[in-house]
Amino acid sequence: TREGILKERTECAPTNGYYFLPLYEKGEYILKVHPPAGWSFEPSKVELLIDGETDQCSTGEDINFVFNGFGITGKVITAGQKQGPSGINVELVNENGDVRHTVTSVGGDFHFTPV
């Protein structure tokens, strides 16, 4: 819900990604996908207003989350330290020479999502 109350949780079918969540009360809900680390989906959440008549669920529409790809995560570490510097530019280059850029965060962490 908008208040952050978890109403229901389910797993997706492993072969096709299908899921089903029963809703017994009308109202406002937020449907979120929580993929494994490094996986990217869009949208990350869908806001629903269930009125029992015209909403997506009541009219039989599917609510789909599209898999965009996997991510790459890593860390730039300063020699002799457990943490790395923030603000370091990191590049990811594919086989065609296309370059993606990111910057390390506090502790030296970086990520590219989706790849």
Automatic annotation (TrEMBL):
Keyword Signal among UniProt keywords: yes
A GO cellular-component term linked to this record: endoplasmic reticulum membrane
Protein's UniProt keywords contain Signal: yes
Domain NOMO second beta-sandwich: residue ranges: 67-115
One Pfam family cited in the UniProt record for this chain: NOMO1-like_1st
InterPro entries: NOMO-like_N (IPR055075), NOMO1-3_2nd (IPR055074), SDr/BOS_complex (IPR051417)
Annotated protein name in UniProt: Nodal modulator 2
Residue span(s) of domain NOMO-like N-terminal beta-sandwich: 1-65
Keywords per UniProt: Signal
